[in-house]
Amino acid sequence: MKRILLIEDDAEIAKLLRLELGEAGFEVDWASSGMSGLVRLREAAPDLVILDLGLPDLDGAEVARRIRAGTEVPIVVLTAADAVERKVGLLSGGADDYILKPFHPQELVARIQVQLRHREGGEQVRVGDLEVHTAKRQVVFGENELRLSPKEFELLSLLCSRPGKVFARQEIEDHLWGRSLDKDSNVVDVHVANLRSKLREAGAYGYLRTVRGVGYALRQRDKD
After folding, report:
1. pLDDT band at residue 88 under the 50/70/90 scheme
2. CA distance to 56, 67, 111, 163, per residue, from 42 (Å)
């Protein structure tokens, strides 16, 4: 049974979500504040965190940053903020997905299942000198280990699954978030740019290819 940590200050919402998630087969721990959630995170070692932004003590985005500083556990944010900048900031700051209020509990369950599937598997993929270890969530190029965010790792894993194939933006969004993002969102571009930068820092020049107007691909080359 997968364990979920719910950080939500509204007792009624928490009660409803605990009921729905329990019926979906999850074990749910509840924390009503950011600080108690961070404490519970260390104690319970959950498989996924559901995080409300409107907490009484800490801003939810700050809680997400603190969680991500110490663990790669998936974080799904509950938010009423619909501004593109806010959502991009959440994803760049450590959240793996977000769901806008009001939402149907079944949609939340579906988002959770997408994130948990991304954490499963035990294969190793090698493209040139680039090695991706799925189970350990480790990426190595030569002697250098890349420190990737969860979404950067999932993006690289997707591209490595079929080297040379150009993945359209829609395919990337479906794989990483399980849905289409806003048409004016630049979240994919942000993650691609960050991944490209980290690959270059490790010496993996020319592996990440951009096909303008189409998408992105991984290729075995030393230089662009």
Report:
1. confident
2. 20, 10, 23, 38
Q: Which residues pair with 4 in a beta bridge?
A: 28, 48
Can you give the pLDDT at residue 181? Answer: 81
Same topology between domain 3-118 and domain 124-218: no
pLDDT at 222: 43
Domain coordinates in residue numbering, the chain: 3-118, 124-218
- Top CATH class, 124-218: mainly alpha
Q: What pLDDT, in 10s, does the model give residues 147-158?
A: 998 889 989 988
Q: What dotted CATH number matches 3-118?
A: 3.40.50.2300
Q: Name the token pair of 99.
A: 């769901």
Q: How far is CA 79 from CA 37, 86, 113, 134, in A?
A: 17, 10, 19, 30
Whether the Cβ atoms of residue 137 and residue 145 lie closer than 8 Å to each other: no
Inter-residue contact 97 to 177 (CB < 8 Å): yes
**Mean pLDDT over the full length of the chain:** 86
Could you read off the pLDDT of 23-46 as tens digits, one per residue? 999 999 999 999 999 999 988 889
